[in-house]
Each structure stands twice: as structure tokens, then as C-alpha cells.
């Protein structure tokens, strides 16, 4: 009868080694995926966006054709305190400044046109 050789490895160790190799392959794939995502992220951050001529023109103050500023003014002295809300706007070669009390009553209105200016104060208009 032929003599059978004994296997030189154990089945338990083989499956253990096989699972170790599979886990190493999996962790290597995860590492490559993480590395790829990191490099893509860095590449996206490194891009330099150059603004177009139109965007550059819009960021210059001399190119502002229409604008508006609103806020609150206060006059404080030892004798009295006064405050007013202001609305200052420039639209199509016309500039307007209005001052209102906190309840909305108009105190002053100043309009500047191309040729002249008008001031309205206490229901009287001055040109």
C-alpha cells in the first residue's frame, strides 16, 4: 500500500493565515481610499480662482451706481440727548438723505440732483 505523506501545515493555521491576509488586503484598500480622498481634498483647496474682469469691476467703489446706507445717529450733550435713524441712498445720479425719529416722523430730507439740491425741514422746502 502506498505511503501517504502527512501534510506540513495545519488546517487551523491555514485559515488563520488566510484571514490575516484578507484583513491586510482590506486595510490596504482602506488606506488607499483614505489617501485618495485626502489628496482630492488638498487638490480642491489648492485651486486658485481668478475673478473675471466683471467681478473685479464690481468690487471697485467708483463702479457703484446704486447704493444705500442705513443706521442710527445720536447727539449726546450734558443738557440733552437726541437720536435719529438715517437713510442715505444714491440711485441714478440722485442722492437722498433722510433723518427720521424712532417712531418714523421725518425730521429732515436732503436731495441732491445733477443741477440743484433741496432741503426739506419742518415742512419747509429750501432749494
Automatic annotation (TrEMBL):
Spell out the GO cellular component terms annotated for this protein, sorted alphabetically and separated by semicolons: cell outer membrane
* Location(s), subcellular: Cell outer membrane
| Highest taxon, organism lineage | Bacteria
Pfam families this protein is in? LolB
Biological processes annotated in GO: protein transport
Regarding the membrane, this protein is recorded as: Lipid-anchor
Which keywords does UniProt give here?
Answer: Cell outer membrane, Chaperone, Lipoprotein, Membrane, Palmitate, Protein transport, Signal, Transport
Subunit structure of this chain's protein = Monomer.
* Family that this chain belongs to: Belongs to the LolB family.
According to UniProt, the name of this protein is Outer-membrane lipoprotein LolB
Record organism: Pseudoalteromonas rubra
Amino acid at each position: 500500500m502506498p505511503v501517504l505523506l502527512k501534510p506540513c501545515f495545519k488546517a487551523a493555521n491555514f485559515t488563520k493565515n488566510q484571514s490575516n491576509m484578507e484583513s491586510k488586503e482590506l486595510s490596504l484598500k482602506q488606506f488607499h481610499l483614505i489617501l485618495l480622498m485626502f489628496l482630492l481634498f488638498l487638490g480642491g483647496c489648492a485651486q486658485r480662482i481668478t475673478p473675471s474682469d466683471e467681478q473685479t469691476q464690481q468690487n471697485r467703489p467708483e463702479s457703484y451706481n446704486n447704493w444705500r446706507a442705513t443706521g442710527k445717529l445720536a447727539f449726546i450733550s450734558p443738557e440733552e440727548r437726541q437720536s435719529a435713524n438715517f437713510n442715505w441712498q444714491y440711485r441714478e445720479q440722485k442722492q437722498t438723505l433722510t433723518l427720521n425719529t424712532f417712531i418714523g416722523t421725518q425730521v429732515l430730507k436732503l436731495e441732491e440732483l445733477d443741477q440743484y439740491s433741496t432741503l426739506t425741514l419742518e415742512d419747509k422746502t429750501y432749494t
